[in-house]
DNA sequence: GATCATAGTCGTCTTCCTGACGATAAACAC
DNA sequence: GTGTTTATCGTCAGGAAGACGACTATGATC
């Protein structure tokens, strides 16, 4: 089979960028790394890198995630849920404006990862340093200072982050995805605090408890209890097999 | 600024593929073109093509859509809705498995377009011919005959089509997107038949009427009436400004 | 022109879900 | 013990949806 005519199409570089979200001290945080190279040297950016020649897009995202955080990604397409507790990873969207990278044509396939609270990030790859930053802070900076401010994220990463956060906010409404922010065993209160942090609202503990325990297949009790949040001991649960929440959890109007 | 080191990343070709959906004679249909070139010569495929060197991804999708159907795409990011009746166009997902194209590494950014019923497609580009095919027929063939059957879609297009249909099915639940399948003025019954065709169910006309007319901003009456569906004359409506449907339209369990 | 078929529109009733909130339970700190 | 914190159960009113009856206005058929 003859190869394609190389003049028929221009060459592109393809990268993956990661929006890694977690909940730390009651606020939604994302992983950012400081760029050590031009362009945008010294600015914060989402972790990411080039897709290798024989690598699938999802595999590239999983590799970058492991390099930056040590997390193993769950493959949503796997026939059985992976028993150990890795991160949820899904494709978010693809960004390919011609001038988004000043040096050449780069198309970036952004991915969204949701992880339970992690120890401080281990710097790796081309990053001088890495940190968990509250998303509100990052997005407010981009809105207030403009994209050219030294506090703003590099490239179009503010847009990618914004899209990723919106995806997470809407997806926990109608799926069990919020459990991806929790450790393997968790209490109803811990799950409620995840919703509160992601949505930036406060929820009625009694109605929330009724909703999540009344949805078949959403939570399965492990039998244990814990007092790690203080107060009366709470039942421990694992995520059940149900992935869709029907009817959905309603996000309160602001 | 020095260019990137070319050895740091492998070259990719980037294409856009289109899932163009419409409702014809009470069933959900998609546009497919017959391939005139290897690979998969003679097989049906989704329309698409290479992204040009200075072209944004959305612009490439809009260009391909216009070439294949003559439709102009609405830009969802535009500050005001475009008054004329083009198609809804949005990015769907990106497919980049290393062997998805046998000749070289191709990453395809799939887009989803929703259009009102159109005249027979005009063949264009590299397609020998084009047709509207019922999606159930196409997907059943892929499932029954396997991907190597001559009836199956080329490349991974059965997967892309399946993802696009699922996106459309879920998105009309909580948005006013179903109006994109309708002409500029339409009746409640015509809108209901769109939902019925996309979901493959039948809906109660009375409850549907109550739901869509009771949601503020969803439909605005034009004052006219029509009897083009037979029976009692029905009020004509245009799509209102509301894009989100809250609470959502509930898809009946199968 | 009467009858019929077709489609549209308005109501009613029951059931389910949610939001608001009272009350009780079981731990810890002092 | 008292107070504080968190968890859990229960009650009640309001809203939305499913099921379905009733009526209306057109064109088609006899």
From TrEMBL, chains A, B:
Keywords: Hydrolase
InterPro entries found in the cross-reference section: NUDIX_hydrolase-like_dom_sf, NUDIX_hydrolase_CS, NUDIX_hydrolase_dom, WH-like_DNA-bd_sf, WH_DNA-bd_sf, WHD_NrtR
Every Nudix hydrolase domain range: 11-155
Highest taxon, organism lineage: Bacteria
CDD domains associated with the record: NUDIX_NadM_like
Molecular function GO terms recorded: hydrolase activity
Gene3D superfamilies membership: Nucleoside Triphosphate Pyrophosphohydrolase (3.90.79.10), Winged helix-like DNA-binding domain superfamily/Winged helix DNA-binding domain (1.10.10.10)
Protein name, per record: NUDIX hydrolase
The keyword Nucleus appears for this protein: no
